[in-house]
What we know:
heterodimer, A: alpha/beta, Rossmann fold, seven-stranded mixed β-sheet, three-stranded antiparallel β-sheet, globular, B: Rossmann fold, 2 domains, six-stranded mixed β-sheet
Amino acid sequence: xxxxxxxYLDEQTKRMIRRGLLKAVxxxxxxxxxxxxxxxxxxxxxxGGIQVTASILGANDVLKVIDQGADDxxxxxxxxxxxARTAGVATxxxxxxxxxxxxxxxxxxxxxxxxxxIVYQVPQPEPLFRLESSRVExxxxxxxxxxxxxxxxxxxxxxxxxxISISYDYPVMVNERYxxxxxxxxxxxxxxxxxxxxxxxxxxxxxxxxxxxxxWTRVKSLDFEDHPFRTINAPHPCGLCGATDSYLDEVVTDxxxxxxxxxxxxxxxxxxxxxxxxxxxxxxxxAE
Amino acid sequence: MTEPTLLSGRGLNLTFGTIPxxxxxxxxxxxxxxxxxxxxxxxxxxxLLNVLSGRLAPDSGTVWYRDPADRLHDVHAMPAPALRTxxxxxxxxxxxxxxxxxxxxVSAGGNVGERxxxxxxxxxxxIRSAALDWLEQVxxxxxxxxxxxxxxxxGMLQRLQIARTLVTHPxxxxxxxxxxxLDVSVxxxxxxxIRSLVTRLRIAVVLVTHDIAVARLLAHRxxxxxxxRIVETGLTDQVLDDPRHPYTxxxxxxxxxx
Lengths: 288, 258
């Protein structure tokens, strides 16, 4: 595209971000400040993720962008088109074909590989921000690995609700050292972060923080011995493809209480349907 | 007194501008002993407490702490993580205002359990039963365990703070006017509670108070401060019954019936 540098950001900015990324990879889970730029989309729409993606993208990369697991929602479509125009890179919706995956709120169902990078859009990088309002104090707590307070939150949940009630953005310990927010992915996806072969990068544009999990790193969801971490999912198979092991979205279909549970990962669902799997509500797709 | 000291301050000096807050202060504390620091307000009591507990660095002088493995540590030369660990395990700090120490948005049980969790306790049932046990020890009804501290009275808050501090069985507790701002009958019960807990658990205490009666009731030894100096020190009864320094005499005589 004329008048723009490759992948929108100028090279000096990319260099600054890459430097931050290197530091983040060297200290898994540690939040590294960076000079977040004004991007042509509002804060909260993925300004952090888009800057990280822009600074790691090469001409031969194949980009996939998902929003809540779907390739066809506004955020995903516009960011994918943004990079198709400003970088001219190939884009895809197939998880297996992508080399860089930018995501909001989900990790793809398909196991990622060592030659892939997943970039998370992060609204709030500080896992302790609801518990301790002072950023000076939370920095000190990270520095001293003083994370009793996070467990106090879990304790309060159990004593009030009988269980840990965090369903998304479930706090994790990275490499047994840093407490980290996994971004607002469902707790269902937390186990996928543990020992993931792909490099995981996190960008928070408004909060101006980058962090990372290198491949094959231990990521443990916080819990108690007698209240172990467990994932929560709707107790249904996918209505379209019949999958029982994927994260489901509930879709209201009419005004009479009709609802449909479908895979939130649209690529996963489409792939299964193409392979001949049919759910109870999936006959139309099967007939096509 | 052949036993080695738990905490020693040597030659502590600190000035705030031109005001001498501490001048050549030497302090010793033995295990299981309760030392009261008395004096009028502005005499440097709280400053001394903050310096001894590592929260405030002196201009000169050293504070030594002997850990359970009999190693001596220079409190102000310790790395921050080690000092932090000390503060949340071996040491405790009881503030005059319990709101400084408690988390007002966290239930009583969570408040008591926090130090355990900070130390790595990861069994909900154990933490809960420890919290219940400690609430009972400080005479708070067990069915208040899930209530927020803001529903508690002043005396209950102070007792909750003590439970929160003692749950990790510290060897040394710093107390800054623990009975200040409470009415007389609540004060008496709290003093009774502190005395029995401290004696039973053999906790060493540095107690700052302006109230001679509190010092007499709780402390084994007493140090009287005036303008940043310790002017007299000795066994509590000795100092209070037979004060030698003119300032101590004035202090003792100004109390109605200590």
